[in-house]
């Protein structure tokens, strides 16, 4: 039986120059509801003509927007935040249809997180300041200038949040943004664009164009684009950063990870289990910063695994639109296949499946939350990003040993640790090579906190005041106050 979700059908594929735009000559992109595998809508990839409209309107609109005072820009962003909150339920349902994530999550984590970012950067927009320096009688000052037209390219796990986390600081600082969602989740960013314009954003400043990687690549290399902010995998990040750098464009890269959570012998075990659950199974494990390598002190591993297994097995798995459900499907068939392949490899390499490890027998892209143990650091499931609900539990006995093992990865996105020893917490966190760390907590990302990765996990940071720097460049002005001396 086909389920009809009329609200999932977008008005049109693209949002350009303040209005929805359709062009069915581009390749069709089916929107598949992951909980059933049904196609619930179709959008079309942007053609070169569509991209030209997006680029031309953004370039034109950005000049006046940059000239507007920050308070006025910020007011529009804060109004958009209010509209998002008013429409939270409808937007959360759309996010669930786009990604398959349970409504229980999307009601509190997606549109609301987007609204938080718009509110935060809306407030900061009036506070875009430079500095001044004294050089004897002469002096210099700096002015933060917007970069111009910026491109945002999103992954499929947080389509509303990613559009807002990129759009809010870009717009607050006087830039225009052209956003390309993942082809797997094209719906939510259109609503963000619609709401921004309903809030008063002038036409052309937040355009959404659909397409596959080639559309992202065409935007990245267009001469009118000053910056590219990508959320995606490390291989795509390397390609996009290289293409942008070849033209001296700025980049922000939010990429993948294989983050560690260290659980010491004195940790509150229930807190640690909760942190490991949140850091592995939220959004069915499709979270870049997940702590998928859980290092547990040998003396408590048995108790940790028992409590973890019994709690994971109480997860309500089912209809994502039922608010009682707390675990949904994978977002795509392709990602489900990747995770299933990883599970086969883990078994073949000797892993023990503590719980889960199987595809759930129903329509759609379902896999049970999985805990693996009896692992060594060289196993594939411990080294590679799986991007699914698969937690690897490892053991350790010594602090220096676990720090070295935690850092033994090409990634550096996040890390967490659980201990009641305050001194140890700060000593250990200072040695972890990760852009974002949590002590006795995991995966919370309020907009006032910088978020991002080191090493292969990325360049730059999203959120916090720092994101304002990443969407501006400093113009320095030297002011001579004395006669000019010359040698001849
Ligand atoms: P991908 O890297 O496959 O794609 C990311 C985006 O880039 C998509 O919109 C994709 O388009 C586009 N793209 C692909 N090739 C190019 C190209 N050559 N030029 C420009 N754009 C291109 O990532 P996924 O969508 O599969 O997302 C999962 C990954 O994202 C994981 O590694 C995860 O860790 C990471 N991620 C990182 C986060 C962070 O903040 N650090 C947060 C969330 C996810 P299309 O999909 O249409 O092909």
Model description:
The active site is at 254. GO terms for molecular function: betaine-aldehyde dehydrogenase (NAD+) activity; metal ion binding. It holds the Pfam family Aldedh. It comes from Jannaschia helgolandensis. The protein is α/β, with parallel strands linked by helices. It folds into two domains: 6-256 and 457-474, Aldehyde Dehydrogenase, Chain A, domain 1; 260-439, Aldehyde Dehydrogenase, Chain A, domain 2, CATH 3.40.309. 38% of the residues lie in helices and 20% in strands. It contains 16 helices and 20 strands. The protein has helices at 48-67, 70-86, 88-99, 103-109, 111-124, 159-172, 188-198, 213-221, 234-245, 269-281, 301-312, 333-348, 380-383, 399-407, 422-429, 464-470, and strands at residues 14-16, 19-21, 28-33, 38-44, 132-135, 138-146, 149-153, 176-180, 206-208, 225-231, 250-254, 260-263, 293-297, 352-355, 370-373, 390-396, 414-418, 436-439, 458-459, 472-479. The strands form five sheets. The chain has a seven-stranded mixed beta sheet, sandwiched between helices. Strands 9-8-7-10-11-19 form a six-stranded mixed beta sheet, with helices on both faces. A three-stranded antiparallel beta sheet has the order 5-6-20. The protein starts with 13 loop residues before the first strand and ends in a 9-residue tail after the last strand. The chain binds NADPH dihydro-nicotinamide-adenine-dinucleotide phosphate (NDP). NADPH dihydro-nicotinamide-adenine-dinucleotide phosphate (NDP) is lined by residues 153-157, 180, 182-183, 212-213, 216-217, 220, 230-233, 236, 239-240, 254-257, 288, 385, 387, 413, 453, 458.
């Amino acid at each position: 039986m086909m389920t009809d979700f009329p609200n999932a059908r977008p008005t049109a594929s693209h949002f350009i120059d303040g209005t929805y735009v359709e062009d069915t000559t581009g390749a069709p992109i089916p929107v598949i509801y992951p909980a059933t595998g049904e196609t619930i809508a179709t959008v079309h990839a942007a053609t070169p003509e569509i991209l030209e409209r997006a680029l031309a309107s953004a370039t034109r609109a950005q000049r006046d927007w940059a000239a507007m005072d920050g308070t006025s820009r910020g007011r529009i962003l804060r109004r958009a935040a209010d509209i998002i909150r008013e429409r939270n339920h409808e937007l959360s349902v759309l996010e669930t249809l786009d990604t398959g994530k349970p409504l229980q999550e999307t009601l509190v984590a997606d549109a609301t997180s987007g609204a938080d970012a718009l509110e935060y950067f809306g407030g900061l927009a009036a506070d875009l300041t430079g500095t001044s320096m004294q050089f004897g009688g002469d002096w210099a000052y700096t002015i933060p200038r917007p970069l111009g037209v910026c491109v945002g390219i999103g992954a499929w796990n947080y389509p509303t949040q990613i559009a807002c986390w990129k759009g809010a600081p870009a717009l607050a600082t006087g830039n225009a943004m052209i956003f390309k969602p993942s082809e797997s989740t094209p719906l939510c960013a259109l609503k963000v664009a619609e709401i921004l314009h309903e809030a008063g954003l002038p036409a052309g400043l937040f355009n959404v164009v659909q397409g596959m990687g080639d559309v992202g690549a065409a935007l990245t290399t267009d001469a009118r684009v000053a910056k590219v902010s990508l959320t995606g995998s490390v291989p795509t990040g390397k390609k996009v950063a290289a293409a942008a750098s070849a033209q001296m464009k700025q980049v922000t890269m939010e990429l993948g990870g294989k983050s560690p959570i260290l659980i010491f012998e004195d940790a509150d075990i229930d807190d640690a289990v909760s942190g490991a659950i949140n850091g592995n199974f939220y959004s069915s494990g499709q979270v870049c910063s997940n702590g998928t390598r859980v290092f547990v002190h040998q003396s408590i591993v048995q108790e940790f695994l028992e409590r973890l297994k019994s709690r994971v097995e109480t997860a309500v798995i089912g209809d994502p639109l039922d608010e009682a459900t707390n675990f949904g499907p994978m977002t795509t068939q392709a990602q489900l296949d990747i995770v299933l392949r990883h599970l086969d490899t883990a078994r073949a390499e000797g892993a023990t499946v503590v719980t889960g490890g199987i595809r759930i027998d129903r329509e759609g892209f379902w896999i049970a939350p999985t805990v693996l143990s009896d692992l060594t650091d060289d196993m594939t499931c411990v080294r590679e990003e799986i991007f699914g609900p698969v937690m690897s539990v490892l053991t350790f006995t010594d602090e220096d040993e676990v720090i070295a093992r935690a850092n033994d990865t090409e990634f550096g996105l996040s890390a967490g640790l659980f201990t009641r020893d305050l001194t140890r917490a700060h000593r250990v966190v200072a040695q972890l090579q990760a852009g974002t760390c949590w002590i006795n907590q995991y995966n919370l990302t309020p907009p006032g906190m910088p978020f991002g990765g080191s090493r292969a996990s990325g360049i730059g940071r999203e959120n916090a005041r720092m994101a304002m720097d990443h969407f501006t460049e400093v113009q320095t002005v030297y002011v001579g106050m004395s006669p000019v001396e010359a040698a001849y």
